[in-house]
Amino acid sequence: MVRFDRRLLLNFDWVLIGAVLVVALVGLANIYSSTHLYTNVGTPLYIKELTYYLFGAAVALLIVSIDYRVLLTLNYPLYIGMILLLLFALLFGRTIAGAQRWINLGFFRLQPSEPAKLILVITLASYYYRKETGKGFTLLDLAVPALLTGLPFLLIAKQPDLGTALLLGFVFASMTLFVKLRWTTLATLLCGGLSLIPIAWKFFLKPYQRQRVATFLNPENDPLGTGYHIIQSKIAVGSGLIFGKGYLKGTQGQLDFLPERHTDFAFSVWAEEWGFFGSVLLIICYFFMILWGLNIAISARDKFGVLLAFGVVSLIFWQAFINLAMVMGLLPVVGVPLPLFSYGGSSLLTNLAGLGLLMNIRMRRYMGTS
Amino acid sequence: MPPRPLAKINKIDPVELKMLKKRIDIAMALIIFSAALLLTRLWYLQIYRGDEYAKLSEINRIRIQEIAAPRGNILDRTGQPIITNRPRFNVVWNREDAPNPDEVIKDLAKILNEDISVLLDRIRAATENPRYMPTRLKEDIDWETLVAIENKHLSLPGVRIEVMPSRDYLYGDFASHFVGYLGEISPAELEEKRYATYQSGDQVGKQGVEKIFEKYLKGEKGRNYLEVDVHGFEQRQMQLQDPYPGNDLHLTLDVELQRVAEEAMADKAGAVVVMEVNTGNLLVMCSTPPLHLQEFVGGISGTAWNRLLNDPLNPLLNKTIQGQYPPGSTFKIVTALAAISEGVITPDATFFCGGALNYGNRRYGCWKKGGHGTVDFHRALVESCDVYFYSVGMRLGVDNIAKYANSLGLGKKTGIELEHEKGGIIPSTTWKQQRYKEKWQEGETLSVAIGQGYVLTTPLQLCRMTAAVVNGGTLYRPQMVHRITAPDGKVLKTFSPISDGKILGSAHSLGLIRNALVDVVNSPGGTAKVVRLPDVLIGGKTGTAQVVNLSQVGGMSEKSIPYKYRDHAWFTSFAPAEKPEIAVTVLVEHGQHGGSAAGPVAKAVFKKYFELKNGIKTATEGTLPPVAPEEKEE
User: Fold this and answer.
1) Contact at CB, B45 and A238, closer than 8 angstroms
2) Calpha distance A304→A284 (Å, rounded)
3) Which of A1-15, A229-243, B399-413 comes out lowest in average pLDDT?
4) Strand pairing category for B499-502 and B135-138
5) Cα Rg of chain B (Å, integer)
6) Which positions in chain A touch B7 (Cβ < 8 Å)?
7) What distance in Å separates residue B14's CA from the closest CA in chain A?
8) What is the DSSP letter of B525?
9) Is residue B478 a contact partner of residue B342, using CB atoms and an 8 Å limit?
10) Is the full-model pTM beyond 0.90?
11) How far apart are CA B123 and CA B92, in angstroms?
12) Residue A42 reports pLDDT greater than 70
């Protein structure tokens, strides 16, 4: 299983690596810009992020060296481990900003909801690969994957981290639509889902979550409260104009007007300092990476590879899209980081691991079926 | 352990691959569409509405800090500065900078020699202010304290020294009621329209001239444009706009004259007003005991304020315009003017004073118990015969007296620009009807004729009246300011004399009164011989205002009467007699005798005035023949 084929090296996906490197370097520079004024918090955050990058690269390299098909046997142990971690975080986790999301490992504070995203992708890919679709999934066929998604969804939503929970939902929906669904199933789901929205609003959402949505619809109603993030972020992005205010010169970010500016709102700092020009380049870089990932999916040697690659791509796409739309005021503030760009070890490791899987699939596209 | 075999790989069925490819294409299209959506949004924010957001980000980070302007100086009529500015050092506290506030406050309390609870109260009172706004812990610390704090700077994080311009009183409590004092603007004042541009914490004139001329004195605040972070903490200075000092106020007061008056009144409670008779300009506005202006710098303490409130000498009252006293015999000027002008008597008509007049079933006594004998108009004024004026008053009736009193500016405010002026009372039949719903009793007219009963006047009113009587009959409005000049010396505003009209009474009658008043000071029988100066002819009228009815203190010797029951002493006067220039009115509360208590104060003022005017010292009193101890007017 661990025999390393030298042909693999030839198939190294330099395009993918190049794109990731660009985003990584730009992201590190951006984290430096948004945090260098904090001199009194020990190790500078950009150094920490660099460490995570190096660690993540090692993890990705390890993943690349092992054939992804091993996941077909590991998927349930991984899934069970993930559920246990989420339960542990919920029961004993550290509370930050009112949410129990963290497990303290001493050297690293793990946010289990981050790897949970990738493990769900692996679980669903394995399930859909094994399940014979035939004429397409019926509603009953969807019960198992829905349960597999629903469990971590509830555990994460309970933390509460609605953004990540919804992300699981989006990934589940994308992957399920990608494998064949019956039209009747789709129609039933659509109707059921739409009718569930008001019920969820009333019984499932916490007051602060309801307020976030209300604020999103009209941020100027509460400019110093929950609308503050959206307004300040829009000011940061908008005031960047064509070429930006210059590196380290963004007033919104440097002067602390922008909250969460090295994590969820990292892109706002970038847009303020580099303007329309820099922002377009970064967005193009992301979407190139995503489209390249779809290309990897369709060229995979087997259906598991296709499903797995598609799942990873949908995970990266939804994070990027939700985050960008959020900081530009198109979506409510839900706390989803921009992959590879926002500061945060758990998220970075997860995404690098996901990219490692993509690379893994890419490199083995010509490998024979044994 | 042998490696676990990998799951078997099934090549993808070509039909299914085709379907998957189709779905990947759909996904690609959706992804490109969402990329286009994001890019459009980016264009909308950064290009289409970019300028708008750029402006918002500008306002976001610039805070404008105001710098207090040095207040305009206050000078006397000769240009001598009376009140200027000096830097004042305040201790301020910025809670954000301090990691261990309790310790710091404890240390600071020790240095400031202040109870820790006082400092904590101030901090607590400021909890609603924005976090970046420093709290003032102590105002106007002295040099030693400043040095002590600066030396311990490192061990006192969060403690800073703030420098503010502050009033410097070059002559101490000079004319304290008149110039007034400053204080922090109150929430109630902030609501007023005239203070629309002020902010909490600003200094503002609270009393006197400082308040009246606030808009000229305050100057233009400077602005410090600071770049701040979201918590409001200063990052750096972007632009500084210096404050522009306030305008200078040139008062009509004369420093030397005012000081002489204040010194002469040092051990007395009362008032001195000096007015130029031909302009209405006030040279002296003295009310004692004075306010200690230094106590008001940076806000007066509660204990000091209570002490002032409960002081029996009433230091908070500006007695020149707010003290209302019966004018006593000085009011005989009014009765005399009315009597001659109305023709109820001729100057030569005589009355007999046997020491009292019986009217109704009451006996109205003359201050001279033995009686004046036969008195005519001139002698009645000079010797202040009460019986003469009882008789004249009865002939006039109260309404005639009131008519002349009103025309002399009594019974109503003088119109001086100071706040809270009192108008006094001039009774009349209609006044009594309105006030007490009662009919006027004829006997009451007798009291009014000699300035007792209901009659109340302020020192300023009497001074203005005296000026009008001796200047040919023009009633001038009291003026306090000559001109206002900008810091560059440009004259912004000048104040010229304002006439409030002519008084009633013929020039002939005014001449008669003037002559009589000169003899009050200069004839052997006059009641104010003590005021006489060797080379200047002074005229004046003494007055004694009863505080309580005689029966309450009857038979007591003067020294044994409790202070608060002693009579008020008046002296109102003018000089030089030939061509009067100034009128001087003195009131000594509970001073008992106009001539002996109030007279010397007026004399000191006259002496100084003519010394200053002639540039030489007038002859000292030693050259005058000693004045025989005079009879004391009651």
Assistant:
1) yes
2) 28
3) A1-15
4) unpaired
5) 37
6) 69, 72-73, 304
7) 11
8) T
9) no
10) no
11) 10
12) no
How far, in Å, CA of B61 to CA of B234, rounded?
10
DSSP A215-238: HHH-GGGSTTTTHHHHHHHHHHHH
Q: Measure Cα distances from A219 to A202, A329, B21 in Å.
A: 21, 9, 42
What pLDDT, on the 0 to 100 scale, is given for residue B622?
40
For residues A31 and A183, give the distance between their C-alpha atoms in angstroms, rounded to a whole number: 46
Q: Does residue B44 come out as left (phi exceeding 0), alpha (psi in the -120 to 50 range) or beta?
A: alpha
Q: Which of A139, A195, A146, A188 is nearest to A168 (CA)?
A: A146
Q: Which residue has the tokens 């632009």?
A: B239
Count of A-B CB contacts under 8 Å: 149
| Interchain proximity B231–A70, CB inside 8 Å | no
Q: What is the number of H-type helices and E-type strands within chain A? A: 14, 3
Q: Does the ipTM exceed 0.90?
A: yes
Compute the distance between CA of residue B113 and CA of residue B142 in angstroms, rounded to an integer.
12
Alpha-carbon distance of A188 to A201, in angstroms, equals: 20
Distance from CA of A73 to the nearest CA of B (A): 8
**Beta partners for A105?**
none
Partner residue facing A239 (CB), from B16, B42, B53: B53
Q: How many CB atoms lie within 10 A of CB B632?
A: 15
Closest of A122, A173, A120 to residue A151, by C-alpha:
A120
HSE, side-chain direction, 13 A CA sphere, residue B357: 21
Residue B162 tokens, joined: 């703030």
Hey, of B38, B62, B227, which one would you mutate to test binding to chain A, going by the most A CBs within 10 A of its CB?
A: B38
Q: Could you tell me which residue, B622 or B252, shows the higher pLDDT?
A: B252
If phi over 0 gives left and psi between -120 and 50 gives alpha, with beta otherwise, what is residue B577? alpha
Distance, CA of B45 to CA of B324 (rounded, Å): 73
Average pLDDT for B108-126:
82
Backbone φ, ψ for residue B539 (5° rounding): -120, 155
Picking from A68, A233, A245, A255 by the largest number of B CB atoms within 10 A of its own CB, the best residue to mutate is A255
* A116-125, B163-172, B178-187: range with highest mean pLDDT: A116-125
**Residue B156, min C-alpha distance to chain A (Å):** 20
Residue in B closest to A366 by C-alpha: B11
pLDDT digits (tens, 9 = 90+) for B255-308: 999 999 999 998 889 999 999 999 999 999 999 888 887 777 767 778 888 888
Q: Please tell me whether residue B220 adopts helix, strand or coil conformation.
A: strand
Q: Which residue from B minimizes the CA distance to A303?
A: B12
CA distances to A12, B176, B182, B500 from A5, in Å: 12, 101, 90, 116
HEC profile of B380-406: HHHCCCHHHHHHHHHHHCHHHHHHHHH
Q: Determine whether the interchain pair B60/A257 forms a contact, defined as Cβ–Cβ distance below 8 Å.
A: yes
B569 SS3 class:
strand
| Secondary structure (H, E, C), A275-333 | HHHHHHHHHHHHHHHHHHHHHHHHCCCEHHHHHHHHHHHHHHHHHHHHHHHHHCCCCCC
Residue B623: what pLDDT? 42
| Max CA distance (Å), chain B | 151
β-strand partners of A137: A181
**Using CA atoms, how far apart are residues B25 and B579, in angstroms rounded to an integer?**
114
Q: Give the pLDDT band (50/70/90) at residue B606.
A: very high
Asked if A291 lies within 8 A of B31 by C-beta distance, the reply is yes
* Amino acid (1-letter code) at residue B614: N
Indicate left, alpha or beta for B51 from its phi (over 0: left) and psi (-120 to 50: alpha).
alpha
State the smallest CA–CA distance between residue B45 and chain A in angstroms: 5
